Amino acid sequence: MIRKILIANRGEIAVRIIRACAELGITSVAVYTDADRHGLHVKKADEAYYIGPDTLAGYLNVHRMVNLARAAGCDAIHPGYGFLSENPQLAERCALHGIRFIGPSAKVIRRMGDKVAARQAMIEAGVPVVPGSEGNLRDVDEALALAEEIGYPIMLKATTGGGGRGIRRCDSAAELRRNYDRVLSEATKAFGNAQVFLEKAVVNPRHIEAQILADSHGNVVHLFERDCSIQRRHQKLLEIAPSPQLDDEQRAWVGEMAVRAAAAVGYENAGTVEFLMDHDGAFYFMEMNTRLQVEHPVTEMITGIDIVQEQIRVAAGEPLTYRQDQIQRRGFAMEFRINAEDPKNDFLPSFGRITRYFAPGGPGVRTDGAIYTGYHIPPHYDSMCAKLIVWALDWESLLRRSERALKDIGVYGVKTTIPYHLAILHAEAFRAARFDTSFVEQHPELVQYSTRRPTREIAAVIAAALAAHHGL
User: Fold this and answer.
1) How would you classify residue 113: left for phi > 0, otherwise alpha for psi between -120 and 50, otherwise beta?
2) What domains are there in the chain, each with its CATH number?
3) Which of 177, 219, 258, 375 has the most CB atoms at less than 10 Å from its CB?
4) Is 65 helix (H, G, I), strand (E, B) or coil?
5) Nearest Cα residue to 316 out of 99, 79, 6
């Protein structure tokens, strides 16, 4: 078994991994920059090491991470999500120095991180993909010719990368001409790769993803699906498991395709296969995330499986703890990303000192965070400061419990998305489980009413606003 893990990350996900290590009896090692000197992950870990004053470069330096792991006597590195989590060089460097990388191999990371190569792998495996270019586009003229052939709208995408960056929808040839160089520039700046491809745009799809686990003994299982359709500018706001929009036949198909996709590329460890579902019920492979997802807790809540502990066991060479027939889902879970943002000011980041903080409790409620009273949220990183995860036996109970938990949590001193999440819960389309990736854009009135008003007043005001918005 692995004895000591360096966590090449910070904040909420570092704290999550530290907790998994504690339950497995593994020594946890944190890293920090000047901005994170007082971070909760530094306080919680068994050991913590300073990696320099630069707020970003420290967490992105492959050689420094591996050298520190060796110096600290670590036999494994967990990258969490973001930063180096999908960097094949880290996986390669770990292998070179006999350190276990808690994730898939560098070969798989590289292949699935290249969206064109991933598309080809899925086609060969019999997993449906969105119609699009067979490879990277040579120039804008090739893009225009292919777009004319498959029909607008199309999505122009960076071949490497993710997180909603390097993506532009084009509804006409003029838009495609205008956006082509922009996407090339975004791809170069964000991912160091000036290659793009295009796909037919699936208009206002549902975003459905399946969690998989695979070991080095040939075992691959899925842990059912998550619905990540509530998004703003391709960034997820909340996630649900399982999707309240799928029936049992669709759910089984998604799980089967995810397992097939993982097996086809020789995948090991935890991963997520993402699909787009159109309004006719057809599914298309979108991408595979070769890392732990932000939203993994909702899957843990409905299955009872600790995904991070399974990651560690797989990296140690152990077989999966569960067979597919032993994995059962129970109830529904929803994760709310508590971001330090002001919904009423175009979600502008709201960094600063937290004057008071208290987490909610009660049955079926979990909080994953890295904040505390007096903590200064630094402006250098992502604005997510906590995740509220709620479980209940059925959808209606989940809605009620989620409302209670959101009203229980207290984050003061900075603006957060908590009031906006409350407003979403009262939108009739959401309560009826009828939503897609256009939900936020179609309901701009929710921002106006994202306040901590009494429950009945919120419901009445939003109902009236929705009726007026849709001309009812």
Assistant:
1) alpha
2) 4-102 (3.40.50.20), 131-200 (3.30.1490.20), 206-468 (3.30.470.20)
3) 258
4) helix
5) 99
Q: Spell out the alpha helix ranges (H) of 25-157.
A: 40-44, 62-71, 88-96, 106-113, 115-125, 140-150
Q: Looking at 340-463, which runs of residues are DSSP E strands?
A: 341-342, 348-349, 352-353, 356-358, 365-369, 376-377, 384-392, 410-412
Residue 194: the pLDDT is 80
Answer yes or no: are the C-beta atoms of 286 and 204 closer than 8 Å. Answer: no
pTM, full prediction: 0.91
Cβ atoms of 371 and 411 within 8 Å: the answer is yes
User: Are 142 and 100 in contact, with CB atoms under 8 Å apart?
Assistant: no
Angle, alpha carbons 250-256-259 (nearest 5°): 140
Q: Report CA 188 to chain centroid distance, whole Å.
A: 22
Confidence bin at 461 (pLDDT 50/70/90): low
132 DSSP assignment: B
Partner residues linked to 116 by β-bridges = none
- The distance of Cα 316 from the centroid of its chain, to the nearest Å, equals 25
Mark whether 291 is an active-site residue.
yes
At 89-126, the pLDDT tens digits run: 999 999 999 999 999 999 999 999 998 899 999 999 99
Range list of β-strands (E), 140-236: 154-158, 167-170, 196-200, 206-214, 220-227, 231-232, 235-236
Q: Would you place residue 192 in the very low, low, confident or very high pLDDT band (cuts 50, 70, 90)?
A: confident
Q: Which of 291, 313, 337, 366 is catalytic?
A: 291
- As a whole number of angstroms, the distance between CA 454 and CA 3 comes to 50
Sign of CA dihedral 272, 273, 276, 277: negative
Beta strands per DSSP E along 278-331: 283-289
How many other C-beta atoms lie within 10 A of the C-beta of residue 179?
19
Pairwise CA distance, residues 60 & 62, whole Å? 6
Cis upstream peptide for 153 (omega within 30°): yes
Residues ≥6 apart with Cβ < 8 Å to 264: 121, 122, 124, 125, 127
